[in-house]
Amino acid sequence: MMNKKNLEIYVHIPFCVRKCAYCDFLSFPGNQQMQREYTEKLIEEIRCQSAKVKEYQVISVFIGGGTPSILNMEDMAAVLQALASGFEILADAEITMEVNPGTVTAESLSCYRKAGVNRISMGLQSADDKELSYLGRIHTFDEFLKSYQRVRMAGFDNVNVDLISAIPGQTLESWKNTLKKVTMLKPEHISAYSLIVEEGTPYFERYGECAERKNHFLSQEGSCLKSLPDLPDEDTEREMYYLTQEFLTEQGYERYEISNYSKKGNECRHNIGYWTGTEYLGLGLGASSYINGCRFHNTPVYNQYCSASFDQEEAFQGVLRQEFERLTIEEKMEEYMFLGLRLTQGVSAQGFVGSFGHNIRNVYGTVLDAMEKEGLMEYKNGCYCLTSRGTDISNYVMSQFLI
């Protein structure tokens, strides 16, 4: 029997109730007709894509968005069934679905669980209702609590909660209060990110590089952003960063990646796959893939995606294989280092040899020595990893590994 290669699958559901002010993901509101149209096209893509990766076995599935949980539960069940029928998904595969508070019911959660979902990722961001309103979230903390309880009552025993620090008006005390309230619920996993003001978002108009001109150029729609409080200053943001590590560690969460913490054994296997070079296939609007040393993505244009016939090779290549790029060995090595250094355990010297047939020191010895000398990296347990100081300036350290 042929030894099959491991593959991860990401499924993108682009719909949301309302786009948050800080969000730069490919997402937008969509009515029932759009959602049904998209579901049918996604299932068609699943059928076509799965036929081309028969040499792979699927070790994880992540359904993200957008807000996947606003999709009609029958449509979501149909998507999950199509995945199960088309791909060889291992019995112990991690299957995660993102949900937002206020968009799940006991019935829909039961449906997801029966269809194979075994991990839920909930977007909370803050336990402070005023901060949630600043972010443009559609829910309150109380609504999150009710949804979280439904998730637990549905039998899910592997739950992640997403949080964001350094948001408008947030103080060190309010951030600590969010951490306290969330850890009291004992989720198995917590993702704690610092807010990034992304270009093209309403937040960029208010807080971006041209913020000093915002009073002259804010659109009428975005003018309400003028009333938002300022972002925490850099010193406060740094204090929040350290508080997160200290507090979550005290509560029994192990930091295994720059922004991710979990109870022992509950690390997100799907994300670890990304960071360690596992191949992945993206399904749905704008989804990215990395297979056989090639990187490509689906069209981000909704009408183009939904009108294409994936059975036709021209449409398959033109719509689902955009910006097709074959990585060089140097680019693969760079990516291996960039992603691997995000993990607290670092990059395995033996794993590097296994992946590329080269000793890591023959390729990066000079850089590794320099980073160790500066106190930014260390070698332990067969891995090169960031020190605490190196993690603080991780972007600088990672940039040193460009060949």
Strand-helix topology:
Blueprint: E1 5-13, H1 32-50, E2 56-65, H2 73-86, E3 89-99, H3 106-114, E4 119-125, H4 129-135, H5 141-153, E5 159-165, H6 172-183, E6 189-194, H7 202-207, H8 214-217, H9 234-250, E7 254-257, E8 260-262, H10 269-275, E9 279-283, E10 288-291, E11 294-297, H11 302-307, H12 313-320, E12 322-326, H13 329-340, E13 347-348, H14 349-356, H15 360-373, E14 377-380, E15 383-386, H16 388-392, H17 394-399
Parallel strand pairs: 1-2, 1-9, 2-3, 3-4, 4-5, 5-6
Antiparallel strand pairs: 6-8, 7-8, 10-11, 11-12, 13-15, 14-15
Helix pairs in contact: 1-2, 6-9
Short description:
The protein has 403 residues and is of the alpha/beta class.
Can you describe what's shown?
This protein is an alpha/beta fold and 403 residues long. 41% of the residues lie in helices and 21% in strands. It is built from 17 helices and 15 strands. It has helices at 32-50, 73-86, 106-114, 129-135, 141-153, 172-183, 202-207, 214-217, 234-250, 269-275, 302-307, 313-320, 329-340, 349-356, 360-373, 388-392, 394-399; strands at 5-13, 56-65, 89-99, 119-125, 159-165, 189-194, 254-257, 260-262, 279-283, 288-291, 294-297, 322-326, 347-348, 377-380, 383-386. The strands form 3 sheets. It has a 9-stranded mixed β-sheet, with helices on both faces. A 3-stranded antiparallel β-sheet has the order 10-11-12. Strand 1 (5-13), helix 1 and strand 2 (56-65) form a beta-alpha-beta unit. Helix 1 (32-50) packs parallel to helix 2 and helix 6 (172-183) runs parallel beside helix 9 (234-250). Mean pLDDT is 93; it is low at 210-223.
